[in-house]
Amino acid sequence: MGMQHDTPSSPITDFVWDRSIRNLKRSRRLSLFSEKKDDDAWLPVLEISGSEEGPALLILAGVHGDEYEGVDVILRLFHSLSPEEVKGSLLMIPTANPYAYLGGSRTSPEDTMNLARVFPGSQEGTVTERLAYELHNRFIANAEFMLDLHSGGTHYAVATLAGYYHDKSTDFGRKCREAAEAFGAKVLWGHSEVAPGRTVSSAQSLGIPWIYTEAYGGRRIRPEDKEFYYNGSIRLLRHLGMIRTPDSGENENVPIVSRTIYGDGNFDKSALSEADGFFIPEVSLLSEVRRGDRIGTIYGLDGAELQQVISDSDGIVVMLLGTPAVRKQEPIYLLASLA
């Protein structure tokens, strides 16, 4: 089956995810909302409609425009899988926020908004709010499972992990946990509550099971993260019953979960710097710290000690500032809990 490229672009407001289509592989360009004549932002949609009926999986990447691991895996999946190998409908968006991707930034330069804070969006809002509205209603709402691929981006170093909705008492919670385990992350982050405005809170409100991933970041893709994201995505497809090819790793042993941590996963609750300076951490990602332990120190370039960064609770370090030059009120670290 040949690959179709739909050009020129069509408006995102006309998009319909037709899950009944079979045996087709295509890419589409969806135009967005900017009124700038020279605007080259468009939403890429890569679709593999399997030769047989099956589940509908949505994979998102690039919700933040400076996170590249997910973009890499989506492009690799699109070129490595054929409709004959797939059951159901696999729809992938490598840059869910094209504005931020073009700007190489966490937020949209058009309106300075963070796409991962405005779901389910607004049909009459700013370009980022309108984008969230269309993603919520045209993509997430029509999925049966959602995978959202993230990482630390430009400024933050984040532990490699898979996050999921934690509720052992419900079928929804069990589906999320089982998918996270199948992905193969050695560290799982369970959330009994999810902060509003996220893709995952959007999926949750629609009853769509989900997981997300995090990795180190730094606007570079580490080889180990590159393979973790790709192999994990293949394992998730297999877990959902969407692929069964001989080379899909069916005999592979899924990595054992070595640690499950908890919390709401809200990076907006990160501890903030009290001074401009140069941050030197004294712990590493996934270190276990106690209240009162020193996370690191902020120094002035004259050698003055400006702030001892002290842990305000017990927990596990899941994020550290990745760029040592720090500004006052910038996030420095985030802890998850062990229980």
Question: What can you see in these coordinates?
Answer:
The chain has a 10-stranded mixed sheet with strand order 1-2-3-5-4-6-10-8-9-11, sandwiched between helices. Helices cover 20% and strands 31% of the residues. The chain contains 6 helices and 19 strands. It has helices at residues 69-80, 98-103, 127-139, 171-183, 199-205, 223-239, and strands spanning 3-11, 24-31, 42-49, 52-61, 87-93, 145-149, 156-158, 161-165, 187-191, 210-214, 259-262, 271-272, 277-281, 288-289, 294-299, 305-310, 315-321, 325-326, 331-336. The chain is globular. It has 339 residues and is of the alpha/beta class.
Largest sheet features:
10 strands, mixed
Category from helices, strands and their pairing: alpha/beta
- Low-pLDDT segments: none
Share of helix, binned: 10-25%
Kindly report the average pLDDT value: 95
> How far is it from the N-terminal to the C-terminal residue, by CA?
49 Å
The CATH topology of the largest domain is what? Answer: Aminopeptidase
Shape: globular
Within CATH, the superfamily of the largest domain carries the name: Zn peptidases
Number of H/I helices: 6
**Order of strands across the main sheet:** 1-2-3-5-4-6-10-8-9-11
Could you tell me the radius of gyration in angstroms?
20 Å
CATH class placement of the largest domain: Alpha Beta
